[in-house]
Design brief:
Elements: E1 6-10, E2 13-17, H1 20-23, E3 32-35, H2 53-63, E4 69-75, E5 92-98, E6 105-106, E7 109-110, E8 114-120, E9 131-132, H3 155-165, E10 171-174, H4 181-188, E11 192-197, H5 200-216, H6 230-239, E12 245-246
Helix pairs in contact: 3-4, 4-5
The structure holds S-adenosylmethionine.
């Protein structure tokens, strides 16, 4: 399904329809790769690449230029050893839990939450961003947009991931952009975005979603999210001068 590469530019986004393994060789290093790849236990035939996800991931790691940071989202029941091909030039930094308000079960496993695995450098320390959280806010099941893509992710989680895994104005790359959730979040948060999708149907959907988000404009300019409770304010004040570290 790779076919010729098509490029569509929408404001701060450059979107490529084609095989990530081809397109990545033509793209320079970016600040953050934030992606939700074809996961190891993906049912065969559900989406492109599901015939051999480990090989697709291994090849992706081989051909990509090393970014400043790599953040990979997998469902909580995906075997993280899938990530073994991540280059040693990107040391593990931390994992982040992406919960949902209403748990669901997968076979005997309760909870369909996702995990973001973060490799490489942290973001720059700044007021309100000295401590990198280990947990994103819980998403409602309805936050996962029903746009026709079989595995589109919760925009609430991706807004949060873009906010915490990149700095304002930086470039985020998603080589497996699907319906474009990462790109929509990047537009909403004032980042540049490069997206790649092999399936023309999902590529067209991503173009439409990212175009709508770009037209809506930047919703959040990179100023830290205000801390509301007085207890949280005291904690933020106490840690404001600490070096960037793990929470
Ligand atoms: C897990 S889905 C990503 C879903 C996305 N995060 C969203 O919210 O819609 C992975 C996507 O990778 C695409 N894909 C599979 N193999 C690919 C390849 N070699 N190059 C580019 N895209 C590919 C699939 O078509 C699928 O849409």
């Amino acid at each position: 399904m790779s076919g010729p590469v098509e490029r569509v530019d929408i404001g701060r986004a450059s979107l490529y329809r084609g095989n990530a393994l081809d397109v990545l060789t033509q793209i320079g290093a970016v600040d953050t790769i934030l992606t939700d790849p074809v996961w190891p236990n993906c049912p065969t035939g559900l989406i492109a690449g599901s015939d051999d996800p480990p090989r697709l991931w291994q090849e992706t790691m081989r051909v990509m230029r090393i970014p400043t940071r790599l953040v990979v989202v997998l469902r909580g029941d995906s075997d993280p050893r899938f990530l073994a091909p991540v280059p040693t030039a990107l040391p593990f930094f931390r994992l982040i839990h992406l919960p949902y308000t209403i748990p669901a079960f997968v076979g005997r496993k309760l909870g369909r939450d996702e995990i973001a695995y973060w490799f490489g450098d942290p973001i720059r320390p700044a007021r309100g961003r000295n401590l990198v959280p280990s947990r994103a806010p819980a998403a409602q099941p309805a936050d996962t947009r029903t746009n026709g893509h079989p595995c589109s992710r919760a925009l609430k989680h991706f807004d949060w991931l873009v906010e915490w895994t990149s700095d304002a104005g930086e470039t985020i790359l998603d080589p497996f952009m699907g319906s474009g959730t990462t790109g929509v979040a990047a537009m909403r948060l004032g980042r540049r975005f490069i997206g790649i999708e092999i399936d023309p149907k999902w590529f067209d959907l991503a173009c439409r979603q990212i175009d709508a988000a770009e037209r809506q404009g930047v919703l959040f300019d990179g100023t830290p999210t205000p801390v509301r409770s007085s207890r949280a304010k005291r904690a933020a004040a106490a840690t404001a001068s600490l070096p960037l570290t793990l929470l």
